[in-house]
Amino acid sequence: MKKLLLCAILMATSITFGQKKLEGSIKNLKGISEYNLVFDYENLKVHKFDTEEDFLKDKMDKREEKHPGEGRGEKFKKSWFADRENLYEPKYIESFNKRFKKQEVKVDKGLETAKHTMVVKTTWIYPGYNVGVMKQPSKVNATITVYETANPDNILCSVAYKNMPGATFGGGDYNSGIRIAESYAKLAKEMAKYIIKKAK
Question: Please, which domain of life does this record's source organism belong to (predicted)?
């Protein structure tokens, strides 16, 4: 049991994640105090599947086969999409905003006063797992792009993030949505830190 637990801990801490600038410069964000936040999940891929649709079909079929007539497949699908607005996005907003102690920079959805837009485009998700003695954090790949709201073609900065890990230490991440939400918290943390350190 101890060996299994140690293995799980090592697996959870051995993830390598990275950041890569794609376009523009982080210095272009100097002085910007607020961003209208947009989340884009179009054409995202899920680990080991060609498309998100293939992933959902696989998970739904397995649930229907194991529990026929109970509607668990459709319930999983609804939960998968609902987790975006209910879990991922609030986690990103909370994690980003709390890095700015004096609230000198903030992000939020539907922020009509913002002259700049921050798009978080998810490209890949690994849901991870937690089966008690063994667990693997979720991972998310995403591209964060900032542009002038009135002129979307004027991209100020675009950054790609890879393998943003997500897990909780209290054992409350048996649900994939909770794990993935923590990946978005990590994503927001890294972007906020990048702005704090480099947008000068």
Answer: Bacteria
